Amino acid sequence: MDATAPVAPSTGSHPTGSRPGPAHPLRPARTLARWAVRHGMPAAYLSRAARRGDLVARLLRDPALRDEPYAVYEALRARGPLVPTALGPVTTSHAVASEVLRSDRFGVGFDWSAAPRAARWALSFGDDPAVTGVAEPPSMLVVDPPDHTRYRRLVSRAFTPRSTAAAEPMVQRTADTLLDGLERAAGRGNPVDLVAEYAAPLPVLVIADLLGVPTERRDDFLRWGAGAAATLDVGLPLRRFAAADRALRALHDFLREHFVRLRRDPGNDLVSRLVTASGEEALTDRELHATVMLLLGAGFETTVNLLGNAVVLLDAHRGQRDALLADPSGWPDAVEEVLRFDSPVQITGRTVRTATTLAGVRLPSGSRVTLLLGAANRDPDVFPDPARFDVTRAGARDHLAFSAGIHYCLGAGLARLEARVALQALTERFPDLRVSGRPVRRDLQTLRGFEHLPVTLR
Ligand code: HEM
Questions:
Q1: I need a labelling partner for 199 at 20 to 30 A (CA). Which of 26, 110, 219, 319 fits?
Q2: Would you say 330 and 350 are in contact if contact means Cβ atoms under 8 Å apart?
Q3: Where does 296-381 show beta strands of DSSP type E?
Q4: pLDDT for 76-93, tens place per residue?
Q5: 367 CB-contact burial (10 Å; exposed 0-12 / middle 13-18 / buried 19+)
Q6: Given a cut of 80, is residue 279 above it in pLDDT?
């Protein structure tokens, strides 16, 4: 994830700045410094490039283009497998994206050594562990081995196929309870927002249950998660960045208190295990915050998009939806096709570790490559007639919606389970559900999904 945003290096391991209490007098200046390097300057640069016609800059700066990015992807594809853009080389090719994701010639850590001194100073001055987001170290998303291996090993036991399958009854119960609420909210034929009532709460309740964090805080998590999701993007306006900072600070505050409770009274859950781990497995405070925040945030900020995108696609393809009602064994393939056709994570990026050649282009060490996953998933070399939505498509599962290589989505099995259960339950409970009115897309670059999705149930 975090396709485009350069990632600030983490300094130190103890989050002294993360202690609650009176705000540090330099906090506003630090926020401004972080914003200027990570968003303000890139925004100005991308806006200039967009005005010059750079396609990727236009895509990142123009919400209308992002609503319908697929024509831009095809225009880029026509220019070749690796296209020079304002962001550096960008690929729409499945083969090239796959190669980058699977190769140890590329990593996720951002190389700041070549950045101007002022930018490096501002990043280190602005560094504040109390607002560190999921796209900053030590989040495993943006950390290379050996630390990545250590973090991932600690949490992967909770996401094995067996652990995931054991969650199915809980996912089903959660879906059924929310559907009861949806029915009540819809009253007598009034439109209801499927995102607010179903697609958003379902994944947050599921991941909270699995991690052993209190499900009653679901509305807080959703608010904080929306802030965290925005920080995956590049070029946020200061107001949105400051709101995301506040959300992250509140989430870190919650986690800190939660860890104190668990240290006193550990349960049998993953977070208790992480908090009480000792010896070689012990995580620093900063690592603990980053790991739990990522599991929580990645656990719901992505699946909500898969559910919303699926409902809209199935509404537009009623025949396919009816076929799934008649034969529910098709749901797993349908979920793969939605992931391929309208991917919840559209963009990711990698850093060249040592100078290399990719698609015939020489790339210097430390440079970035941007992978348009949503475009790779429509590569005609892999998916015949890629712009056709077909829930029976053979090979849909070859998509890169969950990435590939060592950062392959840890929660892919869980997301697949949630989508299968949630979509089947929704369709069977409300076979006459229709999208009514205009669904509104989330104003995000990296994630693709709906903010509001009005539906009528009958
Ligand atoms: C439809 C739902 C989801 C999608 C599309 C998705 C997609 C992705 C992608 C594309 C990456 C890798 C990004 C990269 O390579 O740069 C990733 C990583 C990750 N995902 Fe998911 N994800 C989903 C759901 C989940 C869920 C439910 C969890 C629950 C824990 C989760 C946890 C993670 C974690 C921890 C990573 C980091 C893995 C690593 O860096 O080794 N994801 N996800």
A1: 319
A2: no
A3: 347-352, 356-358, 361-363, 368-372
A4: 999 999 999 999 999 999
A5: middle
A6: yes
Residue 412 CA to ligand 1 centre (angstroms)? 7
Distance 436 CA to ligand 1 centre (A): 31
In the block, which residue shows the tokens 């958003």?
Answer: 200
Cα–Cα distance, 394 to 95 (Å, whole number): 18
Report the Cα 240 to chain-centroid distance in Å.
18
Percent of the chain with pLDDT over 90: 86
Are 211 and 295 in contact by the 8 Å Cβ rule? The answer is yes
Report CA Rg, the chain.
21
**Side chain identity at 184, as an amino acid letter?**
R
Atom of ligand 1 lying closest to residue 305 CA? 1
The whole-angstrom separation of Cα 416 and Cα 141 is: 20
As given in the structure block, the two tokens for residue 36 are 């200027």
DSSP reduced 3-state for 42: helix
Domains along the sequence of the chain with CATH? 26-456 (1.10.630.10)
What is the distance in A from the centroid of ligand 1 to the CA of 307?
15
The DSSP 8-state label assigned to residue 23 in this structure reads P
pLDDT in tens, 286-337: 999 999 999 999 999 999 999 999 999 999 999 999 999 999 999 999 999 9
Q: How far apart are CA 236 and CA 43, in angstroms?
A: 7
Q: Which atom of ligand 1 is nearest to the CA of 418?
A: 27
